[in-house]
Specification:
With about 100 residues, this protein is of the alpha+beta class. The protein contains 3 helices and 6 strands; from the N terminus they run βββααβββα. It is about 15% helix and about 35% strand. The strands form 2 sheets. A 3-stranded antiparallel β-sheet has the order 1-2-3. It has a 3-stranded antiparallel β-sheet with strand order 4-5-6.
Amino acid sequence: MRSSGDPRPVRVEILPETIEIEWQGGVRSVFRHLALRRMCPCALCREASSPALGPPPVAAGVRALDYSPVGRYALQFHWSDGHDSGIYPYALLREVPDGPT
């Protein structure tokens, strides 16, 4: 069950260089497209990465084309490389308030 303190986005904007998420309470997260794509939490991407191997291989020019909300707990991004199986929980996206660059 969701608590009233869980984060929720009030705005998600896909810009040319970044993806910006504004959360309830005014906190803002900013992610570069490639960094967020490399954070993909899906099983395929997590299996492809490890501390020894680093992040999964992703083309440098990858961009988010669109996104969809998943219930009341996550966002699913649709990437220019055709990948769209990752579901990014709000808690994961809020871990780094200014997002990875």
